[in-house]
Amino acid sequence: MMSQSLSPRESLNARQPRAPRPGAVRADRSAAVAAGVLYVTGTVAGILSMVVTGGLRDAHDPLAAAAEHPGAAVTGALLVLVMGLSLAFVPVVLLPVLRRVNEALAIGYLVLRGALETACYLVLAVGWLLLAPVGEVVAAGPGTTSPVGVRLGGLLLAGDAVDAVLAVVFGCGAVLLYALLYRSRLAPRWIAVWGLAAIALYVVADLLAMYDVVGAGSTEQVLMLMPLAVQEMVLAVWMIARGFRPTAGATMAQPADGALVSA
């Protein structure tokens, strides 16, 4: 019995990365474009929800304002749902690609961003939907101020506990995504590094707001959140325009069947 090994040159050639199949390249391209579109859709919906509900959030008596303008509350809730569902489907469409890099991290990203984060957005949307009907019962009426309405309306709009959970869930999910992108080189590493640095600043901004060091929605907090907002749009545009790198994450080929020949 004797075995014949491949020569060093043949062994090196046998371990070169396999060229990705055309079907896999098209699937990865479709996933990247879909994720980019979902990112843009969620971001636009979130911005529009802030614009539509600006008058309710700034009102001294939110319930009275919602009773007077119920359409704004309902539209704001629908936009929050669009934002939440759009962002929830990003890990869904990316799962087949990311699980080839690291299945455990990809599933963790799916659970955090696809399930837990979506649940937080649903709670926020329900709070907006409750404003108008509760306002009709509790508020003193248009142009009046109800102490109970002011407190209850502020409670429905604040959602401090939900925001705290959302910040943790979003931050952990983002770290998993950018770690996977950095490891796989599916996107340029500078985008992944930018995301990791920006998410740290995002978490710090939310913690400072929760402890009243800076005001929620203040200029200071917005400036700390902007790097991540810009980074996500850069990533979205990159995925739509360029897709994922076709050779990224390619598995190493196994030795050929003739690596060991028995005689």
Distance between the termini: 6 Å
SSE arrangement, N to C: EHHHHHHHHHHE
The main sheet orders its strands as 1-2
Proportion of residues in extended strands: under 5%
Can you tag this structure with a few keywords?
disordered C terminus; 263 residues; two-stranded antiparallel sheet; 10 helices; mainly alpha; 2 strands; single chain
Could you characterize what this model shows?
With 263 residues, the chain is mainly alpha-helical. The chain is built from ten helices and two strands. Helix 4 (62-68) crosses helix 6 (103-138), helix 5 (70-98) runs antiparallel to helix 6 (103-138) and helix 6 (103-138) runs antiparallel to helix 8. The longest helix has 36 residues, at 103-138. It is elongated, with a radius of gyration of 25 Å.
Helix-strand layout with pairing:
Blueprint: E1 3-4, H1 8-14, H2 22-52, H3 54-58, H4 62-68, H5 70-98, H6 103-138, H7 147-158, H8 160-184, H9 189-210, H10 219-241, E2 261-262
